[in-house]
Amino acid sequence: MVIMTASEYLYVNLQQQAPIPLAAEFTCSKNELIVLVGPSGSGKTTLLRSIAGLHHVKEAIVKIDNETWCDHSTNCNLPTQQRRTGFVFQHYALFPHFTVAENVGIAMQDKNKAFISHEVSRILSLVNLEGFEQRYPAQLSGGQQQRVALARALARNPKLLLLDEPFSAVDLVTRRKLRRELVKIRQQLDIPIIFVTHDLDEAYMLADRLFIIHEGQLLQSGQADEVISRPVNAKVARLIDQNNIFSAKVKTHNMDKGLTLLHWKETELECALDERFIPGETVDWLVPSEGVILHRVDRPSRGERENPVEGIIDECISLGENTQIIIRLSGLAGKISFAVPTHVARRNNLTEEKAIRVSLLANAIHLMKAIDSK
Q1: Long-range contact set of residues 257-260: C-beta below 8 Å, sequence gap at least 24
Q2: Alpha-carbon distance 2 to 73, whole Å?
Q3: Is 298 within 8 Å of 284 (Cβ atoms)?
Q4: Angle at which helices 113-126 and 142-154 pack, to 10 degrees?
Q5: What torsion, rounded to 10 degrees, do the Cα atoms 199, 203, 205, 207 define?
Q6: Do 186 and 114 sit in the same domain of this protein?
Q7: What is the 3-state secondary structure (H, E, C) of the chain?
Q8: 117-126 tens-digit pLDDT
Q9: Residue of 111, 347, 355, 366 with fewest CB within 10 Å of its CB?
Q10: Residue partners of 192: CB distance under 8 A and separation at least 6
């Protein structure tokens, strides 16, 4: 029997090997926004559909606000229409022959006309669509259609809101506007939201907690900045687009200096003290782009005495204000990528095949348990 604490509003446990693997167990507080991130086909949408009752899972428990929506151990499995979920799909799924008011009101068919009319007006006001009641979907922009889809989901008076890549079908400017509106709307709701996206920037902006999903498995969860800066292993690191990942052996711990020393290839690296790993143990480690410091020709750079390495520029691509650099490490197998302001790249005459030096900041290096991350 699952016993939920006072702060836990939603409990989900989904387990199966086939036909679609799922291994995810988590709780969610009221008014918490969880963002699911993972590659295409990783099981994010299947997880949402399973919670909503649109996909059957062999071993599933979903409890919310002291209600049981499904529990395989007791053969409980409420149909979708009895689960108070608001589901917003990626591609709107509006009825083209219905007006905006009718698309929203269809979620309240069991209510009287006066109630429906009042609620439609209230909810359209919440999503900034006052005055659009009699328009048809074809007369709306993509962003407006997605607001209608959100309004329809809210019209069900849901206990849980599920958003499956709701902003991916609109342009960047509209997407940013919809994100801001969602932040405002959730302040007026008192329910948890589970949000699926491929966009790490979007996830970082919206998430109270970030979940990394791969092959149906919940690999890591936590505060967004913690997950992004401290992935549990190389597999998660690659899924969140970290590129500078290597293997090394722990050499020793220097307690006085607060450092752990690594033996990497034929060189020694310093990183922040991490006593989780013992001397002689093989670890994976990463350094984010911002932890790679270019040795500049015009003036000394911050931290350039820390872990200096040499390399040859393999790629040098200007991307507006920043220039992306990839170097082949001299005497060490592998490459390191980082970015510098474009004006710095020009001032230092950074071009392909040029030899440069960089430093890897000790405090930026993150150690991870070595696993087969393929």
Answers
A1: 259/362, 260/367
A2: 11
A3: no
A4: 130
A5: 170
A6: yes
A7: CCCCCCCCCEEEEEEECCCCCEEEEEEECCCCEEEEECCCCCCHHHHHHHHHCCCCCCEEEEEECCEEEEEHHHCEECCHHHCCEEEECCCCCCCCCCCHHHHHHHHHCCCCHHHHHHHHHHHHHHCCCCCCCCCCHHHCCHHHHHHHHHHHHHCCCCCEEEEECCCCCCCHHHHHHHHHHHHHHHCCCCCCEEEEECCHHHHHHHCCEEEEEECCEEEEEECHHHHHHCCCCHHHHHHCCCCCEEEEEEEEEECCCCEEEEEECCEEEEEECCCCCCCCCEEEEECCHHHEEECCCCCCCCCCCCCEEEEEEEEEEEECCEEEEEEEECCCCCEEEEEEEHHHHHHCCCCCCCEEEEEECHHHCEEEECCCCC
A8: 999 999 999 9
A9: 355
A10: 9, 10, 28, 29, 30, 31, 32, 33, 34, 160, 161
pLDDT, tens digit, for every residue of 246-269? 999 999 999 999 999 999 988 999
The 10s digit of each residue's pLDDT in 1-54 is 555 666 789 999 999 998 889 999 999 999 999 999 999 999 999 999 999 999
Q: 142: left (phi > 0), else alpha (psi -120 to 50), else beta?
A: alpha
Q: How would you classify the pairing of strands 33-37 and 245-254?
A: unpaired
Residue 102 backbone phi and psi in degrees, to 5: -70, -35
Reading the block at residue 153, the tokens are 């989901």
CATH of the domain at 192: 3.40.50.300
Between helix 142-154 and helix 172-186 the angle, nearest 10°, is 20
- Per the structure, the complete domain to which residue 346 belongs is given by 245-369
Is 5 within the bounds of a domain?
Answer: no
User: How many structural domains compose the chain?
Assistant: 2
